[in-house]
Amino acid sequence: MKSIAHTQTIQPGQSAPLWRLLQATAGAVQATRQGQSLTAQLERVPQALRPGVQALSFQVMRQLGRATALREQLAAKAPPPAADALLCTALALCWNEADAPYPIHTLVNQVVEAARQQRQTQAQSGFINACLRRFMREREALVLATDQNPVAQWNHPRWWVERLQADHPDHWQSLLRMAQQPAPMTLRVNRQHHTVAAYQAQLQAMGLIAKPVGQDGLQLSQAVPVHQLPGFAQGHVSVQDAAAQVSARLLMQGLDTQKPWRILDACAAPGGKTGHLLELCPQAQVLALDVDVQRCERIHQNLDRLGLKAQVKAADAGQPGTWWDGQAFDAILLDAPCTASGIVRRHPDVRWLRRPTDSAQLAKIQAQLLEALWPLLAEDGKLLYCTCSVFKAEGDETVQAFLRRNTDAALHPSPGHLIPGQTPKGLPVEDNQLGEHDGFYYALLEKRRV
């Protein structure tokens, strides 16, 4: 499959025609339906097209449930995959005129042009044109016909909606609504360089408005390119969600940050939490693991920018026999693999990539990692288990099962499931809330003397 259009080259300063952006966006939709991540697809888009394609792709992913339901109203039998992706891209962008990025008639004309310009969709260009013209004539009735479809209403798979209803009966609707909104840009101030207030003043002098969140964070009122942030290249600040910033503070609370603690950051890439640990505890001996060699390179890059040092190894955290030196760790951070259901605002394709069985399969991996790493923790040491998931099978259920199997493990006060839009509890310091944040789960475990 040729998922992204690569026709004529766009020269610097030359704007791409809209039909080319729509072609590339539809290619990303088709690839996502076939199990490929949107991030990987966008990396293949020519640089000149990428910002426009990313903006359109994010909007389409957030409206793909409605678009698919509308296409089913227009044509019960799906057209070939490339044509279906292009048609659904158009419907996602124009079904709600108030949110359309361009005038509806412009979108329709350019989608039809995109179909004509691409070999895989040329034969269906007339069909796409007919469907979209009918949609323009009958839009109100067609939208009304899909309103009772939960996939169309919430733009998430039906199983995802049902799981949130079961796991969070009081908050499932707000979780789904928030997933439709762009995520804020949150910064973590490196306390080795600035106080939060001092860096906030620097931003204000540049006309950038930010509010404090957590203990080290600033949330921008509007996102900006990182090169515009003062001192970013020198490691004065990092981009990290407010909920993710909880991990280092929670693991290190009560410890003397001037001591050379042995700390394991398992599943560490891309290194944001590793960097935060070293900012707080610069004398720590940190081992950062990731199973992927390329992702380990990202850890190195982040630490180099921050001017920090850690031992980085490409290794499977679940197989300590291949990398552990036999000396116990004082603290372990396990940011376990998960469905990423808590970060759908930042990765709107995740909802369409996941399957109903993924949580159960990942929960087994999470349990295996906990069991493999627990013997590596010193007595009185702490292990912080976290995931960026809002599904209880990957959070509270995993931890409760682990506690039943390990009588030497004690659960300390912890936030548990951090639900976007809800006031969190169990934070290291309660006086400065997290603002807007992703969905996360945290459980702080201590190894008791037996």
Provide a concise account of the structure shown.
The protein has 450 residues and is an alpha/beta fold. It has helices at 18-33, 38-43, 50-62, 64-74, 81-94, 104-117, 125-146, 150-154, 158-167, 172-178, 196-205, 246-252, 272-280, 293-306, 350-353, 358-373, 396-405, and strands at 186-189, 210-213, 217-220, 237-239, 262-266, 285-290, 311-314, 329-335, 377-387, 409-411, 416-418, 440-447. Strands 5, 6, 7, 8, 9, 10, 11 and 12 form an eight-stranded mixed β-sheet that branches. It has a four-stranded antiparallel β-sheet with strand order 2-3-1-4, covered by helices on one side.
Describe the structure.
With 450 residues, this protein is α/β, with parallel strands linked by helices. It has 3 domains: 18-153, N-utilizing Substance Protein B Homolog, Chain A (Orthogonal Bundle); 187-240, Sun protein, domain 3 (Alpha-Beta Plaits), CATH 3.30.70; 243-447, Vaccinia Virus protein VP39 (Rossmann fold). It is built from 17 helices and 12 strands. It has helices at 18-33, 38-43, 50-62, 64-74, 81-94, 104-117, 125-146, 150-154, 158-167, 172-178, 196-205, 246-252, 272-280, 293-306, 350-353, 358-373, 396-405; strands spanning 186-189, 210-213, 217-220, 237-239, 262-266, 285-290, 311-314, 329-335, 377-387, 409-411, 416-418, 440-447. The strands form 2 sheets. Strands 5, 6, 7, 8, 9, 10, 11 and 12 form an 8-stranded mixed sheet that branches. β5 (262-266), α13 and β6 (285-290) form a beta-alpha-beta unit. The longest helix is centred in the N-terminal third of the chain and has 22 residues, at 125-146. It starts with 17 loop residues before the first helix and ends with a strand. Mean pLDDT is 93; it is low at 1-14.
